[in-house]
Amino acid sequence: MYIIQFIRGFCMALADSVPGVSGGTIAFLLGFYDQFIGSMDDLLRGNLEKKKKALLFLIKLGIGWACGMVLAILVLTSVFESNIYAISSMFIGFIIFAIPIVVAEEKNALKASPVSALFALVGAAIVIAITWFNPVSGGSSMNLEHLDVRLGIYIFLAGAVAISAMVLPGISGSTLLLIMGLYLPVITAIKDILHFDFAAFPTVFIFGCGVLVGIFSVVKLIRKALERFRPQTIYLIIGLMLGSVYAVIRGPETLDTPQAALSFDTFSILFFVIGGAIILGLQMMKGVREA
Known about the structure:
- The chain is mainly α.
- It has 13 helices and no strands.
- Pfam families: VCA0040-like (PF04018).
């Protein structure tokens, strides 16, 4: 059904728009990560029949993603900042409730190579390290008013790196943009265009080109990893998801006006449960076959 793909894309965009959780994580949690990666790869390298099927899937998903991203940029960014602890608690609910689902669905692959569980430690360490060594607070961003060739190359590379992280479960591309000092400038530039101020169009165009190059560079690698080294890749993804809990806890420190990290005092049990309920509800939707 079209509505299922719309909701999937919408949820991915909400995750992609804020530091902490990636759209790839959402795709993996909702059980269509393989289809998502495979469709992007088929669109670039598949035969005509595969290209058509992939394009139809990605258009449905993309419409939901575009709507979610526009809504996030125009409205929800301020909501996230004013209710960051509730939102962070909900994101943790997403992750904690989803991991057992992932383990259950991939139990055959995980049992096939128990020693590969070491990759979970590697995955968690990667996300924790990226979060720990993040030197940029929310207010420390780069000035893009004077765009030159060197800055343009930097923006292009940042787009490629960020989208690669967004595709990978567990690593937030928005967090990497924060580290590079580009999260607020890029979000502001996109917001200006949505308000019909096209002064920032060159910046967004260069960033978008980097995104396209990055996404089609990484999908082939991920697809091959899932096909040839599935146990190791699944354990790595689980580790990335576990590590993202730490990234979410530290998330308030990366806001425009930095706040204290999530603690037991600011943690919301209610929103944690809501996050878990959403994951369980979306899991039930996976049983609905698409038209």
